[in-house]
Every structure is written in C-alpha cells, then in structure tokens.
Design goal:
Elements (H helix, E strand, L loop, with lengths): L3 H13 L11 E8 L4 E8 L10 H18 L6 E6 L4
Antiparallel strand pairs: 1-2, 1-3
Length: 91
C-alpha cells in the first residue's frame, strides 16, 4: 500500500495535464427585422457566436430566416421575405 502523500502527488500530476475548454462567447445580439409586407418584429435574438468575421451581420439574416422557416413548419403560417435587418438600438 502506498503512503497517502504518493496518492496525492499522482492526482495533482494528472490533473495538471487536463486541458481547459476554449472559451465560447456567450450572449445574444438583438435585431429588428422588417419584412417585405411591412411587418416589424423587434428584439429578435441571435447568438453572438453566429456573428462576426468578414460577413458582419449577414449571418443574422440567415439565422432569422432559418428560425422563421422552423416556426412556419410548426404553425403552418409562413412569413414573407426579409426586407431589412438591423441591430436594435436598445441593448
């Protein structure tokens, strides 16, 4: 049987080799969406992880369109095409 100090030493060594998970940006960005028929939806949440890069806010349009199609599939009511999308002023 090993002495207690040896067991503790082994645990510390294996724990020190564990890697940390990369940090993921959490949170949402709010968008106001205007549809071609004039309907307005405010404060549509888009995960911050979807945005960024060279595309700017264009991925938000794709995300909202995908979300709208899921909702339309479940409810049976379709939305018109998105005319404009912009970040909400209040955040």
């Amino acid at each position: 049987m090993r002495p207690k100090k040896a067991r503790i030493q082994i645990r510390l060594e294996t724990h020190a080799l564990a890697r940390r998970k990369p940090k993921v940006e959490k949170g949402y960005v709010l968008f106001d969406v205007i549809y071609a028929d004039g309907a307005l939806t405010s404060n549509r949440k888009v995960p911050a992880s979807e945005l960024g890069g060279l595309d700017g806010d264009e991925p938000a349009r794709t995300f909202v369109e995908a979300e709208d199609s899921k909702i339309a599939e479940k409810s049976g009511k379709t939305r018109g095409p998105i005319k404009t999308i912009a970040r909400s002023r209040k955040q």
